[in-house]
Design a protein that fits this description.
Length: 113
């Protein structure tokens, strides 16, 4: 959504629109995470009145989709691919291999046994 995107965004570090969208989703999720957890706690608390729980459920369902954790996709920061991404480095398999062979990734070396 455009209303979540920052007004001034440095586009030089992004590969394509999907990476920008992923960045936006991560920022929005981080911003609304505590609010979502509070609403989920209210919904699951059976000692509270049913009306309060229903209101919390309604508020949670009306929140934007970008506030959900399931919307976040791991994408390669170099190519924008979503498949074969190594989570710790946020790189796809091939860019990870090339950077590891060049020695650009600390603590990573080619295995030999």
């Amino acid at each position: 959504m455009a209303h979540f995107r920052a007004k001034q965004l440095d586009l030089s570090c992004f590969v394509n629109i999907k990476v920008i969208r992923d960045h936006t989703k991560r920022k929005v999720f981080e911003q609304y995470e505590t609010q979502r957890q509070a609403l989920r706690y209210i919904i699951r608390n059976t000692t509270l009145p049913q009306r309060a729980r229903a209101q919390a459920q309604l508020q949670l369902s009306q929140m934007h989709a970008y506030t959900r954790f399931t919307q976040i996709n791991n994408r390669c920061i170099e190519g924008g691919k979503s498949r074969g991404v190594i989570r710790h480095f946020r790189m796809a398999r091939y860019p990870f291999r090339m950077n590891a062979l060049e020695g650009n990734l600390p603590g990573v070396k080619k295995a030999s046994w």
